[in-house]
Design goal:
This protein is mostly beta strands and about 500 residues long. About 5% of the residues lie in helices and about 40% in strands.
């Protein structure tokens, strides 16, 4: 039986196809142009993530200031890339889109417009539901008073191929809601139908959530839900888990809050909260498998187990800040700020300002096995606490729910023994493997012609590319690959020269 299985693998053709997401949000940019003389490490840093791969470089072509909010979308063939700092939209050449400036007016716009929205999650770019090429941008203004808040939520529509391929903002600053909202508070989740988008924003100093739904006909306010519990203030970071079932926020006035979320109705439930430390907001992120939640404030990083019914009592200290270290750009002791779960399955933890990034290398693992490394990466420029607004573009429909009516993504679940797309092939052993997005984690196995397993590696959920480098580790010849997600299996073969 094992030999038959290997022969089946090796009998597959080298040229195969795979299902992949229409849009990618695997890039991250930050920084200020060299006329900002505050730091020696000035300019722009550009990160690109793929599963099991991270590269970054100093981007000398960037003309847009990014000092807080960032969101970007790229087509899989890299033909178009659009990104925003909350006030301007730019293309892959770093040119402002036609009609792409003057976004998010109101509040103290003139104060911040030239450097970008000054806090994280002030804007988000989304694939427009039902369209193969349009993007929607949801964004907010910023009011600086004794209570920092937003007063307007806006919607803009973008055609990245418009204006002869330079990009065009078709609709701009369409008012969606006017109230007092938390800044840094846009949280986005895919509707259970696999097409539409939920956008949640918390009302400032109250426990009311405004729930908007973006559909092919536009955006509308579906409900304002009052969830109860102690009042929390502004700031901090919030996010949905990659599987879309949990939302959490770590806001000022002592509250870590965790909610269940219904992707059909857009309603929150089962709120749990815990005092962490007085008047301190912090960073927050989920592991790729959605089991573990990480939060941090200036000097501590903790992990929580979402699967435990008594989740708040699972609080585990992962690390305490190394105060003997000084950031090379600022000379300051670092202190931890915001998190970003990147497309390589790792969580990147910033300091409040500097060039060093800490990394949770195995966030799906419990306790110290998560492999948190302080100051693991030195970046070429200062980042000013900029992180992308987190969105899981690979989360599709919720199978079996009452909203599972559009048939989106069914082909990715029902096809068995589908071929993997492997490139380059033949190779020296350094390859990229493309496969359909899965909702659970999996394992990649590599077999030689005798059926002996010569390599295996973990595959994160909600990813579609796996990069492995076996150069110098395998002899020349043919090898079979099997990627397994529960009962689902995808097969391929590669030739090592």
């Amino acid at each position: 039986m094992k030999l038959k299985f290997i022969l089946l693998l090796l009998g597959l053709g080298l040229n195969s196809t795979a299902v992949f997401s229409q849009w990618k949000n695997n890039e991250w940019m930050w920084g200020s142009w060299p006329n900002d003389t505050t730091w020696a490490y000035r300019g722009m840093t550009h990160f690109i993530f793929d599963n099991n791969s991270e590269t970054h470089y100093k981007d000398s072509g960037n003309q847009v200031f990014i000092r807080g909010t960032f969101s970007g979308l790229r087509t899989p063939n890299n033909e178009y890339f659009v990104y925003t700092n909350g006030y301007t939209l730019a293309n892959k050449n770093h040119d402002t889109l036609m009609n792409g400036s003057g976004l998010s007016p109101g509040g103290t716009y003139n104060t911040w417009a030239w450097i970008g929205y000054p806090v994280s999650s002030g804007a988000v770019l989304l694939p427009y539901p039902g369209s193969s090429n349009l993007m929607a941008m949801i964004h907010m203004d910023h009011v600086v008073t004794t209570s920092n808040h937003a007063q307007n939520i806006y919607y803009s529509l973008i055609d990245p191929s418009g204006n002869n391929g330079q990009g065009l903002v078709m609709l701009k600053n369409q008012l969606v809601a006017h109230d007092t909202f938390n800044i840094a508070a846009l949280m986005v989740n895919r509707h259970a139908n696999g097409r539409d988008w939920w956008i949640l924003v918390k009302r400032n100093y109250l426990n009311d959530f405004f729930t908007f739904l973006l559909t092919p006909t536009g955006i509308e306010l579906k409900q304002i839900q009052s969830i109860g519990g102690p009042i929390s203030q502004f700031g901090g970071q919030g996010a949905f888990s990659p599987d879309g079932k949990t939302m959490a926020g770590f806001n000022s006035d002592y509250q870590l809050r965790i909610y269940d979320f219904d992707r059909c109705t857009g309603l929150l439930s089962n709120m749990r909260y815990k005092y962490i430390i007085n008047l301190t907001a912090g960073g927050l992120s989920f592991s790729p498998n959605s089991r573990f939640l990480y939060i941090s404030y200036y000097e501590k990083l903790w992990q929580f187990d979402i699967q435990d019914p008594d989740v708040m009592n699972t609080q585990t200290l992962i690390a305490t800040l190394d105060t003997t270290f000084h950031d090379p750009a600022t000379g300051w002791h670092p202190s931890w700020a915001f998190h970003y779960l990147a497309a390589d399955g790792k969580i990147y933890v910033q300091n409040f300002s500097g060039v060093m990034l800490c990394v949770i290398n195995n966030p799906d693992m419990p306790g110290q096995a998560c492999n948190f490394v302080q100051n693991q990466i030195q970046c070429p420029t200062v980042y000013y606490s900029t992180v992308p607004t987190y969105v899981n573009l690979n989360l599709m429909q919720e199978h079996g729910s009452i909203c599972d009516t559009l048939g989106i993504g069914n082909e990715e679940i029902t096809i068995k023994n589908q071929q993997l797309k492997i490139a380059p092939n033949p190779s020296q052993g350094n390859i990229s493997i493309e496969f359909p997005v899965q909702e659970i984690s999996g394992m990649l196995h590599v077999y030689d012609v005798n059926g002996k397993e010569v390599y295996k590696e973990y595959v994160s959920p909600y990813t579609y590319i796996k990069n492995i480098n076996l150069q110098g580790k395998l002899s020349s010849g043919m090898y079979a690959l099997s990627m397994e997600f529960g009962v689902q299996r995808y097969l391929g073969k590669m030739v090592v020269e």
